[in-house]
Amino acid sequence: MRLSLEKKRQIIRITTIIGIILTIIGFFVVSQSTYFDPGQGFEQLLRRLGFFAPFIFVLVQISQIIYPIIPMGLTNVIGFLIFGTFLGTVLNVIGLITGSAINFFLGRRFGGTIVRAFIDDEQYDKYVGMLNRGKAFDRLIMVGFIAPIFPDDIFCMIAGMSSMRFERFMKYVILFRPLSMFVYTFMTTTMIEWIDKIFFA
């Protein structure tokens, strides 16, 4: 049975709400547990996983780019906390670039069918109305990749619907997305540590 567009949007909204709730609960549980402390259970688990730990994290990060269940880029923060600033950033960037490329080709293959499932009709008409408008659409992509208020993952799909060449799209991804991700992740990590210190210390 084919799901209607509104049904798909409803499923995505419900899944996102569940993701937010689980994230809040998870943050509270983690803040009260010693499982994630240095030398404790989680670090030992990563050691047992060995080579596969970064690989698994990158797969999770890619899935978050395609279908963001965990809100506010918290998987980026998790990468920082688990693997450290340098390796966490490298793994985040690998997942980010790979996921962005996949979203581009999803947009090119399925077009509005997949994009409409994630945004409402007003947003869809607004963004798609700028397709193939040359530099105006390029500027939209660049601003969307820099500013966290825009649905940048969806912009990757919309870019796939345009006449933009994949090489040019990837140039924008590599130039703008990693930098904005690092700044946003650093700020979010600092905020989480501050909240933890104030309320859970």
Automatic annotation (TrEMBL):
Coiled-coil boundaries: none
Membrane topology: Multi-pass membrane protein
Principal place of residence: membrane
Location(s) in or outside the cell: Cell membrane
Keyword Nucleus: no
Membrane-spanning segments: 12-31, 51-70, 77-106, 140-160, 172-195
Cell membrane listed as a keyword: yes
A Pfam family that the UniProt record links to this protein: VTT_dom
Domain annotation VTT: ranges: 75-188
Assigned GO CC terms: plasma membrane
Matches recorded under PANTHER family: GOLGI APPARATUS MEMBRANE PROTEIN TVP38-RELATED, TVP38_TMEM64 FAMILY MEMBRANE PROTEIN
UniProt family annotation: Belongs to the TVP38/TMEM64 family.
The name this protein goes by in its record: TVP38/TMEM64 family membrane protein
Species name: Ignavigranum ruoffiae
